[in-house]
Design brief:
mainly alpha; 6 helices
Length: 172
């Protein structure tokens, strides 16, 4: 799928009004997320603390309120240091990391070939490639898929300072 950038000096007034409302809501959402985080942090001070997961039920203005508190421990390792110290034993402490797998997929795809029938799903670009190479026929796909266009619109506000610093695209 090809992406194009179109520069429009001005949008229709109705679109501008919609965009104004949208960006106002974006700012409000950000403020609300930040305020909720601060309130959760303040609330945590008043909750009983135990290791792991806890659920607290309370009454508030006639409603039952459920408060879930989960403690997750995150450990960040100095991988280069561990590789040096552990040598061959380093492999014994490793587990697949899905984010790394995604980032490296082009380089490691062949490793998954023996198990693709278990973990794989049809990929539109690979389907096109197989059709172009004559490995499969368009008839094979008749009635075997459902194609829908899903529109996603993202709106990002580029502040004047960001444009001046080259972080965001200039107008026009």
């Amino acid at each position: 799928m090809r992406s194009e950038t179109i520069h429009i000096n001005s949008l229709p007034s109705e679109a501008e009004a919609i965009l104004r409302d949208y960006t106002r809501l974006q700012r409000q959402e950000k403020e609300i997320r930040e305020e909720k985080l601060r309130l959760r942090q303040r609330l945590d001070v008043h909750l009983p603390h135990q290791a792991g997961h806890e659920t607290i039920w309370s009454e508030l203005d006639g409603d039952r309120v459920k408060i879930s508190r989960v403690v997750k421990t995150r450990v960040d390792y100095d991988e280069e240091l561990l590789k040096k110290r552990l040598g061959g034993a380093y492999r014994e402490i490793l587990s697949p990391d899905l984010s790394r797998i995604r980032r490296k997929m082009r380089d490691i795809r062949s490793v998954f070939t023996p198990v693709l029938d278990i973990i794989g799903a049809p990929d539109p670009s690979r389907v096109r490639e197989a059709l172009n190479r004559g490995i499969v026929s368009p008839k094979d796909f008749a009635g075997a898929y459902d194609k829908k266009d899903e529109v996603s619109i993202a709106v990002t506000v580029c502040h004047k300072k960001q444009v001046e610093q080259g972080i965001a695209a200039p107008r026009g």
